[in-house]
Amino acid sequence: MAIEQAVAEGIILGMGNPLLDISATVGTDMLTKYDLESNNAILAEDKHKPLYKELTDSFSPDFIAGGATQNSIRVAQWMLQVPNATSYFGAVGTDDFADKMTKSSVSDGVNVQYFKNEDVATGTCAVLINGNNRSLVANLSAANTYPIKHLKEPAQWTVVEKAGIYYTAGSSSPCLRTLCWLLAAMR
User: Could you give the CA distance from residue 181 to residue 164 in angstroms, rounded to a whole number?
Assistant: First the structure.
């Protein structure tokens, strides 16, 4: 039996904090400028906010759909090689970064069901590569705003009901805890 016959569309559903990875090779001057350490991962502070624009404007970065859960879903999709075998929920803004992330995930074959928050920017993660080292600076922004009401809308709930496997990374997000309770009650 071919895998296409064994794997149903939407069999795996992930929900998490989507971040657009903005990845560029930089010099140590960029690490110094933004008070960053090699091989470290931090949450962005106000002093890091200009970093994302600078990477976009002054370098030739790669834009990659990221965030722990979304990365795992993209890998599952790649392994299954069945279009839309995976789906993903998360919150993004209504900006160019959301468009880039959507394009990246959809081109990987993932059925993205992003909630679009007009009030806040899409979450990003600056990935500064320096030699064999990298420094990550995550700005969660819209990723932290997913409302459970979006999940309960008929179009999204159909995706939830279709899935047989649910995945989320460990998180203290109240929305993700609510999702886990909803899924447990459903099954």
Answer: 16
Q: pLDDT category, 177, cuts 50, 70, 90? A: low
CA distance linking residue 8 with residue 58, whole number of Å = 43
Q: What does the pLDDT read at residue 169?
A: 82
Residues 6 or more apart from 166 whose CB is under 8 A from it? 12, 13, 14, 15, 183
Domain regions of the chain by residue span: 3-186
Residue 151, phi then psi, degrees to nearest 5: -60, -35
Give the architecture (CATH level 2) of 3-186.
3-Layer(aba) Sandwich (3.40)
- Rounded distance, CA 84 to CA 108, Å? 9
Cα–Cα distance, 6 to 158 (Å, whole number): 20
Pairing of strands 19-25, 124-130: parallel
pLDDT of the residue at 171: 59
